[in-house]
Specification:
Blueprint (H helix, E strand, L loop, with lengths): L6 H12 L14 H7 L2 H14 L1 H9 L14 E2 L3 H5 L2 E4 L2 E13 L6 H5 L21 H21 L19 E9 L4 H9 L9 E6 L8 H30 L9 H4 L3 H9 L10 H24 L6 H8 L5 H4 L4 H15 L7 H6 L1 H24 L1 H4 L7 H18 L3 H4 L10 H12 L1 H7 L4 H26 L18 H6 L2 H4 L1 H15 L9 H25 L7 H27 L5 H6 L4 H24 L9 H38 L20 H10 L7 E2 L7
Parallel strand pairs: 1-4
Antiparallel strand pairs: 2-3, 3-4, 3-5
Length: 739
Amino acid sequence: MVVRGRKCLEKRMVEDVNAYIEADYDRTNVFDPKIYEDVLNKEECVKQIKYIVENNVLLLGRFLDASLRIPRSIQKGNLLDIGSYYECLEIKENEEDMNIEGKYCMMKIPLGQNISMDSLSTKLDLPQMMWSEFNPKIFEINNSTYNDLISQIALKRQLQLLVGITPKNIQRDDDENPLSDISIELAVCIPKTCSLQNALNTILDLQPTDLQIEEAYCRLPNDKPWVAADYVALVIFTLLGIVIVLSTAYDLRLQIFLKKDPKTTNKLLLSYSVYTNTIRLVTYKPSPGALECVDGIRAFAMMWVIIGHTFVNLMSVNMLHNPSDVKKFVISFWSLWISSAPITVDTFFALSGLLLVYSTAGKVTGLKLIKNLHLFYLNRYLRLFPLLAACILLQASLFHRVSDGPMWEEVAIQTERCRKYWWSTLLYIQNYYNPTSMCLPHTWYLAIDWQLFLISPIILFWVVSSKKTTAWIALIAGLLVSLTGASIYNFTVGFKSSLGALGPQRENQPDYLSYYYVNTLTRAPPFFVGMIFGYILHLQRGKKLVMSKALVTLLWLLAIILSSAVIYSHYIVIQEDWENHIVDDILNSYMRSVWALSVCWMIFACVHGYGGPINWILSHPMWKILGRLSYAMYLFHYPLIFVVNGTSVVSLYFSTEVSVQRFLADFVIAVLAAYLITLFVDAPSSVLIKHFLGGGGGGGERRPEPVKPWNGTDNQTVANKSNSNLEAPDHEIINKVDL
């Protein structure tokens, strides 16, 4: 039995859970409330239940088979049974002038109740075998199991916050009953004319003192109303499909049947051709000065982002068979490659700054940069807009309709957020305006990257000037200011150094995700590290750099040691007994810059012939297509993971092997989705932007290339195009939430 002696421990752990705020989720925006209200009829409910119980054993068996089972693996932390969703909704019988149809509901039963099965069973007309599994003594758990449950729930809420599902508050109203903050959730299948309370009262004749039960939600077939976003998406994508078919047919007729020279054809009429855009996507021509290894880095970083999101989403889903194994995995050394995955976001921030300077320095004067600043921003915004807008529209509409399942609520939450906050995502302010309820939670990365891009001309103006001294002063000043500002902020607020840290919550500490993880100030230093290396690469462009073997070896060792230390630090700080404010503040302030420094050195070494086998791997042509698809993969992999998880009809089992298998599926889906959306949206948009605004190359190609001498706006467009490729999250991402 639980005892009162744990009061202090309970208070600390529940405060840990309560540190997160409840999301503003209006379910009526995604599920039609009228369809639930219109079918309710208390008298008809009683009539149908009595008929089912007394006269139709087979139909009763179907209702029972779809619901009411105690969760398996409670000792593993599983407090949920999802029943049989589709079996329940498929019940449709016409009996004695009654239209009996199934309704799927989830009910919550707080564990901290004193339940007498004898008093309940005497009220039942149902067979006793129905309750043979329902043993109330499973609620009488010991101290160890209780503490494990509290710890698992705290971890689960941190993981949910990380993937963009803001968990609900847990309130404890009765200190005499320490289990009142934990509930089991059971699926129940009832006639659609019944509310959950009416059904239970009719079947069990329950009094309020017998058993406390609350309704989580109910589902009926075809309960997703058509809204404006659905019609807009249907019209836009239908018109887009028609244009693509016509453009592709025109292209095939000219090039295959009439054998016309592509150079003589109308580029606008071919802009939506799948045939031409596919050739552009898969064709690669080496260019002098291109940073070949960047595509490999981008591809590996994107795979790390996706596998991190796969693991975290699997670990945070409600329908997990073995939650206790998640905690064991997270605090183990072997989880390090997942728990450290959020650091990969800083790879993209570093690449963003590096490519911005490398593709701009020496090709435009400071005066022309200021004169064409509106084009500098406009080209960048337009290069990101088409895919981002398409993803938002799909999340607000078609992704909500593409499938269904007992856990579809999490997809519905993402849909509702996009219908409500689509505009803040398109304005790149979601990391400040609505950080805990972002549309596409992993796009926090895009917001920060755009905000850094907005302020970059302050430094870029001096970098593109002819004086190296001025350029170096501006670059170093930018890095020092960002590091100083981030350090002062981190040491003042005192965040933990990991969102998944299991130690005690610090008093009066602001939310880590909102105030640190998606904060532009705390994430800016890697961008400025990248700018410095971009300038170094610019100065050494076309030159043969000679370095001694001893120096190269030393620099590689330093890069490996420093990056390994950054990764290993995640294992230390995530432990339950970790509590070192100073080290946390140091890590929060400098570990991301150290990681960016290591990545930038790797690029520098590979470009100048000191990368060895690493350069051979990263520069291999097989990464080119993944590099070009990386932005689309980043945007679409995350909502598709939610869709895939939402379709599950059985509890998911967490293990490393299962998670890797799911990653392979998520990765293949992401690549295919990115390929299609690039051909249909991104590639045509690139051609149109080039035609109407000038510069920038077409076909959606996303790799850094040497830029032609400045001719007004062309070079700036290319700079924006190169930099627009740095859009990996993360995650989480990644948001990117990521991890």
